[in-house]
Amino acid sequence: MLTGSYSSSLVLISLCVAILASYTALDLTGRIATAKGRAAYLWMGGGALAMGIGVWSMHFIGMLAFSLPIDLGYDLALTAFSLLIAVLSSGFALWLVSQPSLPGLQLAFGALIMGAGIACMHYTGMAALRMLPGIDYDPTLFGASLLIAVGASAAALWIAFRLRAHTPYVRQIRGLAAVVMGFAIVGMHYTGMAAANFPDGSFCGALGSGLQGDGLVYLVLITTLAVLAVALLTSVLDARLEARTAELARSLTLANQELTQLALHDTLTDLPNRTLLADRIEQAIAKVAEQGGCFALMFIDLDGFKPVNDAFGHHIGDLLLKAVAARLRGHLHSQDTLARIGGDEFVLLVELQEPDDAMDVAVKQVNLVSRPFRVAEHDLQLSASLGIVLYPGNGQDQHELLRNADAAMYHAKSAGKNGYSFFDVSMNSNARQQLQLLQDLRQALEQRQFRLHYQPKFDAQACQPIGAEALLRWEHPQQGLLLPDRFIGLAEKTGLIIPIGEWVLDEACRQMRQWLDQGHHGWRMAVNLSAIQFCHTGLVESVARALRQNGLPANCLTLEITETTAMHDADASLTVLQRLSDMGVDLSIDDFGTGYSSLMYLKRLPANELKIDRGFVRDLEQDSDDAAIVSAIVALGQALGLRIVAEGVETDKQQDFLTRLGCDSLQGYLLGQPVPAEQFMGKLQAMGQANTAVG
C-alpha cells in the first residue's frame, strides 16, 4: 500500500474555508428569508454558487493537502462535475431552509439528499485522480463518511433554518454555528480520505492531461475566498440597507400614524374630532340601512365651563376638559363614539337596541358631568345640556343630524340647563332665530344699539330716592326693545358679555357722574355683574378704569353679584371681592336666599348689602313662609351689619311690611319703573308731586 501524508498548513486552510463557507451559507439564508419575489431567486442562485464553491474548495484544498509517493493530477471534467454537484447540493439546501416550515420528516429527507450530494461530490473528486488500479475504500470508514455527511447535513439544515431571523446577537450565534458546521464538513472529508487505500504500484491516470501543480492551491484558495468575500460582503451590505430601509419604513409608518392621529383626533383630549365623527356617523347610517336598528346622536354642551376657564385660567380649563372626556369615555361601550368638536362641546354617537334607550343614556351623561371634578387641588362643579336626535327619524345625513342635535341642545339649555331635550322640528326655526340673534348681537355693540334704563331705589323710612339700578336693554333694529333674558345667555355663551359688561360699567359711571354734578351726592349707582363677567380676570381693572375715566368716587358704585355666583368658588370670589372692596366699591349679594349659602363664607365676604329676591316679596301677603324667610334674612343682615334691600315691591302692603321689618331701601314698580336716563328725573319729580298731593 502507498502511504499518504498531509500538509498541515493546507489542512488548516481547508478548515478555515469550511468555516467561512458555513458562515456565508448561514448569512445567505437570512437574506433569502427576508427577500421577496425575484430578489429571493437571485439570492438563492448566487448563494448556491458561493456556498457550493466554498464547500467544494474546502474539499479540493483538502485533496491538494494530501500527497503520495507518486505525482498526482486531477481530471478536469470530473473535477468540474464535482463542483457542479456541490453547487446543486447547496442550492437544494438553501431552497429547503427558505420554506416557511421544516418538519422532522422533511428535515430527514433533505439531510439524506444533501448528504448524498456532498458524498457524491467528495468521491467524484477522488475519482478525478483516475488511479490505476482503482482506489480501494475501507467499508467501515466509507460508511462512516456517509453517515457523517448525512448527519452534518441535518445539523446544517436545522441550524440554518433556526438562524434565518435577524434576532439579537444572531451574527455571534452564526459564527459559533459556522465553526461547528466547518468541523463537521472537514470531519466528513478527512474520514472519506482515510477510507481510501492506494495499492502498491498505483499511478495517477490524470497526471498528464489533468490539473496539477502547487500554484493550483493558491488559485483555488484565492478564487474561493474572493467569491465567499463578495457574497458575504454583499449580504452584509444588503442586510444593513434593508435594516435602514426597514427603519425608514417604520419611521414613515409612525409619522403617518401621528399625522392620521392629528388629523382625526382632538389634540387635547385625544378624542375623535369632527372629521372622524362625520365618518363614524356615515358608517352608522350605512349599518342601519344594511342591518336595521337605530342610533342616537347626543350634542353635549358643558354649563359653567367658561366661568371656570376665566377664573382659573386656560391651563385649569384644559385639565377640566380632559377630566370630563376621560369620565365620559370611561363609561362607553366599544361600539360608541365620543368626539370633541369645539371648546366645551362634545358629541356622543350611541348604538341603541330601542329608541327609548336614548333617555337612559342621556340621563347617565348628565349625571356623570354633574359629579364634582377634582382638578389641580380644586373641586370644580359643572353641568351638561344635551340635545338628542334619533336615526332614522331626525335627519337624513350627518350634517342634518348634527344641526338638529345642536338645536335640541340649545333648547335644553334655554329650559334651565343640566338636562336633555329630544329634537323636535319646531326647534329648527328657534335655532335659526337664535343664530340670527347672535349675528345681530355681534354688531350691536359696534352700532351702539345698547341702552341703559334706570330703576330708582328709595330709602324705606324717608321714601326719598337714594340712587338707581342700571338695567341693560337692546334696541334691536327689527325686534324693538329687548330685555336681557332674550340675549344675555347668548352673550355669555360667546364671551360677548365681557365687552358688553365693560360698556355697561362705563355708561353707568358716566351717568352717575352727571347726577353727582347735578347735586345728588348721596346717591349710589347699582350695576349687575354676570357670572362670566365676575370670573373674568380683568374685572377689577375694568371697574377701576370706568371709575377713573368718569371721575366717579368708588363709594358711589355698587356692584351686585348673585348669591350662587359668589358661592360657586367661595375662596376665589373672596379674593376678587376683597380687591373691589379695597378700592371702596360697595358690594351687594343679589337674589339672597335662592341659592345654597354657607354662613361661614357669607360672614367672610366683604359685602355691604343683601338684596332680598323678588320671589319672596311677590307672595309676601299670601304666604306666611315667605314672610318668615324675609324676616330671617333681614335679621341675619342686621346681625352682620349689612344694608338690606328689597326688590320687586309692587303693593302698598308689601312696602309697609318691609319698612316695618327694618329694610333699609326698596325698589319696584310701585316706586318707579326702569326708564331711560333722560326720563329718570322727570319721573322722580312727578312721583314727588303725586306724593305731596296725596299728603
Briefly characterize the structure.
By secondary structure, this protein is of the alpha/beta class. It is 59% helix and 16% strand.
Write the layout of secondary structure elements.
Layout: E1 5-6, H1 8-34, H2 38-64, E2 66-67, H3 76-97, H4 104-127, E3 131-132, E4 136-137, H5 139-162, H6 170-195, E5 196-197, E6 203-204, H7 215-264, H8 274-291, E7 294-303, H9 305-312, H10 314-329, E8 337-340, E9 345-352, H11 357-370, E10 373-375, E11 378-380, E12 383-391, H12 398-414, E13 419-422, H13 426-444, E14 450-459, E15 465-476, E16 480-482, H14 488-494, H15 497-517, E17 524-528, H16 531-535, H17 539-550, E18 557-562, H18 563-568, H19 570-583, E19 586-592, H20 599-604, E20 609-612, H21 614-618, H22 624-639, E21 643-646, H23 652-661, E22 665-666, E23 675-676, H24 677-694
Parallel strand pairs: 12-13, 15-17, 17-18, 18-19, 19-20, 20-21, 21-22
Antiparallel strand pairs: 1-2, 3-6, 4-5, 7-9, 7-12, 8-9, 10-11, 14-15, 14-22, 14-23, 15-16
Mean pLDDT: 81
Q: Span from first to last CA?
A: 160 Å
The overall number of domains is 3
Number of helices: 24
Binned, the helix content reads 55-70%
Classify the beta-strand content into a percent band. Answer: 15-25%
Structural class: alpha/beta
Which stretches are poorly predicted, pLDDT < 50 over at least 5 residues? none
Your description of this structure?
The model has no long low-confidence stretch (mean pLDDT 81). The protein contains 24 helices and 23 strands. The strands form six sheets. It has an eight-stranded mixed beta barrel, surrounded by five helices. It is an alpha/beta fold. Helix 1 (8-34) packs parallel to helix 5, helix 1 runs parallel beside helix 7 (215-264) and helix 4 (104-127) crosses helix 5. It folds into three domains: 5-244, no CATH class; 274-424, Alpha-Beta Plaits (2-Layer Sandwich); 439-679, EAL domain (TIM Barrel, Alpha-Beta Barrel).
